[in-house]
Amino acid sequence: MTKSNFSFIHKPVLLNESINLFSNQKNLIFIDGTFGDGNHTRALLEKNKTCKVYAIDRDPNVKHNATFFKKKYNERFKFILGKISDLENIALNENLKNKVSGILFDLGVSTRQLKDEKRGFSFQKDSVLDMRMGESKETAADFLNTKNEKEISEILFNYGEERSSRKIAKAIINFRKKKKIEKTFELVELIKSVKRPSKRKIINPATKTFQAIRIYVNNELEELKNGLISAINILKKKGRLTVISFHSLEDRIVKNFFNKHSGKIYNKSRYLPQLEPNNTIGKSLKILTRKVIKPMKEEIEFNYYSRSAKLRAVEKI
Ligand SMILES: C[S@@+](CC[C@H](N)C(=O)[O-])C[C@H]1O[C@@H](n2cnc3c(N)ncnc32)[C@H](O)[C@@H]1O
Prior knowledge:
Blueprint: H1 15-19, E1 29-32, H2 39-47, E2 52-57, H3 63-73, E3 77-81, H4 87-93, E4 100-106, H5 111-115, H6 140-146, H7 149-160, H8 165-178, H9 184-194, H10 207-217, H11 220-234, E5 235-245, H12 248-261, E6 285-287, H13 297-302, E7 310-316
Parallel strand pairs: 1-2, 1-4, 2-3, 4-5
Antiparallel strand pairs: 5-7, 6-7
The structure holds S-adenosylmethionine.
S-adenosylmethionine (SAM) binds next to helix 2 and strand 2.
């Protein structure tokens, strides 16, 4: 991809709010764990003219965005295909442990992924039910066509907080008696047949089911739990971790993790990262966002997708 035909399809969320939490001192190293279209990486590289950003993403399709960045920022930018759960190993390979001043996670999918007709992330486009961000084994179609009714219902309820999970799971099993579920619109129609539209009609009845399947296929909650531990393990003292989440399951994990490791009382949750015996995180964090940061009205008007975003940040002490 050349400089002239690169375009940022994804509108960044809470861009200034997240970038401004990072130091502007010279020659710092930052990690963008969810590179996507690179809006946050670009903002970091432009704001701090001597920093280097290691950009990570699990989706091989972002490689051509990275090529553009490499041409523009040379040695100040390095892209690594990988997952945030593997951040500590990535940092060890790059000799970055205890050298990193800031890490950003901007979770979820990008608009580029949502708009890609071949990937099945969107209930607004008819495409194959894939939903893999990177190299997951199971696709959304595999999940829908092989799991039993109880398993499907539990995933929809636990990962989508979908109250009609049982009805939808039953409809999926009935559909499968006739043929395999292959396309997104088949799933959308099936959900519509058993779920009344919400009072807020702008929310599509398929929203929660699609969210749940995507989280399952990409193992997103485990990714986040392990990503948080890895990030803290590689930050240097006074280094900062900033996380932008998009639904309550993610935000609860982040909030509980930050509370626990800053010594605050926290709500025990089954989603909380389990500390391994050799885990050295302990009470090593200071919370920087005593009140969670949300997008302003203007940002939500400009970018409706940002409406559910929440930003939390900590400093390693
Ligand atoms: C919301 S987008 C990031 C957008 C980017 N900050 C921007 O403004 O252009 C999230 C990106 O993170 C990637 N991603 C999601 N989960 C990931 C994980 N566990 N490890 C690495 N990348 C992940 C997705 O593939 C996607 O490209």
